[in-house]
Amino acid sequence: MIELQNITLAFESRTLIKEASAHFTKGSMVALLGRNGTGKSTLLRAMASLGAVQGGDILVDGENLNDLSARDLARKVAFVNTERVNVEALTVHDLVAIGRSPYTDWMGRVTEADEEIIARSVSIVGIDHLMYRSVETLSDGEAQRVMIARALAQQTDVILLDEPTSFLDLPNRYELCLLLQRLAHEEGKCVIFSTHELDIALSLADSIALVDTPHLVHRATKDMIVSGDIERLFDSEHISFDAETQSIRLHR
Amino acid sequence: MQNRELYTTILFVALVIGCVVFAFLDIITGTTYLPIDDVFAVLCSTMDDATLETIILKMRLPKVVVSMAAGMALSASGLQMQTLFRNPLAGPYVLGVNSGASLGVALFTLATPMLGVASMHWLVSFGITGMAWIGSALILLLVMSLSRKIRNINTILIVGMMLSSAISAVVGILQYVGSEEALKSFVVWTMGSVSTVTIEQIKILVPVVIVGLVLAIVVIKPLNMLLLGEGYARTMGLNVKHSRTIIFLSTTLLAGTVTAFCGPIGFIGLAMPHIARITFRTADHRVLMPASMLWGALSMLICTFVCDIVARSGVMLPVNTITSLLGIPVIIYVVLRNSNR
Fold it and tell me: Is the confidence metric ipTM above 0.90 for this complex?
């Protein structure tokens, strides 16, 4: 569904990822792991065509990202970041409706078919009851779900999420990731999200993409656990990763 | 949500009626009151009264047209700036349209006595408006070209404000060295007026404002997408640079032209989009854009009316003072609301 071919990414003059290749398929949830500043966001932004690629190609559905018009790309790839959208008097409905932009006319008129898609998107993320609430009044967890409903309304095969769990409490983090898993398995989406939640990633994601500067390693979750890469990457003076219990252990 | 649609429709109808009523009141009031029956008769051309016709068609009607055009233009440009900069306090004047125009006018009023053309009134009148237009357009072009280089939209806002202050300082210096006569004509312009615009000027003002308003309508969908920020807008298929250019162009045409012809009319552009948001309870520009335009038109018609009423007691208030008194409470309300969030 989305394919990286020998891509090289840099932030300013620093090379983050060098000649990495990976293939992410439909119907699977991919967790993007890596230490701070290793280029998780840069990679996601590049896949959403928000940032430049220094080398290599990104293919979506077999087509090169650079050859797609902005509107066509918006029908294939949706993006969700951590930024909280606070707009006065903007209702959940109207925000999700903006997600229909790649399909609506020059005025952005929403047809009845669009309305059905909006209603379904809102229903999938479980916030039907908030439909006409102003987004300013929502909790962080609810607001994040609205942004995901907006991405769903875009009807793309790929949904990219940049640290979607970062402002949420523990139950909400699991709830959100379960929702993402459902989108991948039941709606057949290719869901790629960056995260620092090792336990969530290991227990829920179908595969793990690990930024191991300057490489990008992509393996099925169970293979990744036994590969030893996680241990190596997350080992520090004070902690280590225990593959057997799939958890972080403190050295005392 | 059928109730909501009904509510929106009723509000629109009420606003249009309000505009018609105040447009009519503006025609009736001036240095003399005109009888309502006679006004109707002249407008429907069932009465032949040359004097009355001249007053209505040459003085009162232009005043109404200019008020409406100015109000619609200023609030439509204010709404675009607020959404583009994602800042409730953004407006054409914050970006320097005001100061750019005043620099143009200050330069002109200072230069005319030296050129010896001060006695040619039509040249002075067109010179003032022309220079104001050039000044504001240049500042907006400068801010626009900066915006192509600077990613962060708030940085552009700050640069615009600094530019604005720097130009005001230069204008201050010009005022200091200018002659008394030059100073007087400059001050007259800064006070703002909708009734000094001539028919010839209206022939330029109205078409330009219409072009600006059409552009503002063209960017309704981009503005909705930009509500979520430029990153989201791009991932939803928006050509952000392209849209930004149209928005800046529209603002230059709208705010620049109105400022050139009517002087700096403050706070309408900043306050009326907020009034539209509060009354229509929406962020959707498909409603907000026409709503802002109508509120802008209505508020300017009211301000003109108040000016006329006050003028009858012998005090000629510049329209600027009335718009400030009307707009500033709204701005304070918005600032307080945001600080409590």
Answer: yes
A143 within domain boundaries: no
Predicted confidence band of residue B115 (pLDDT cuts 50, 70, 90)? low
Q: For residue B286, what is the nearest residue in chain A, using CA coordinates?
A: A107
Answer whether residue A3 is part of any domain: yes
Q: How far apart are the first and last CA of chain B?
A: 27
Cβ contact, residue pair B236, A107, below 8 Å: no
Given the structure tokens 């915006």, which residue do they identify? B147
Give the tens place of pLDDT for each residue, A210-245: 998 889 999 999 999 888 888 888 777 788 888 778
What value does the CA radius of gyration of chain A take, rounded to a whole number of Å?
Answer: 18
**Between B79 and B326, the higher pLDDT residue:** B79
Mean pLDDT of B68-78: 96
Candidates A215, A131, A204; CA nearest to A165 is A204
Q: Do A78 and B232 touch (CB under 8 A)?
A: no
In a domain, A178, yes or no: no
Instruction: Tell me the C-alpha distance between A184 and A131, whole Å.
Output: 24
What is d(CA A151, CA A160) in angstroms, rounded to the nearest whole number? 9
**B88 touching chain A per CB within 8 A:** yes
Contact A153, A96 (CB under 8 A): yes
Contact between residue B139 and residue B99 where contact means Cβ atoms under 8 Å apart = yes
Distances (CA, A) of B247 to A108, B231, B324: 17, 17, 25
What chain B holds in terms of domains, given with CATH numbers, is: 2-91+193-339 (1.10.3470.10)
Query: B283, A87: Cβ pair inside 8 Å?
Result: yes
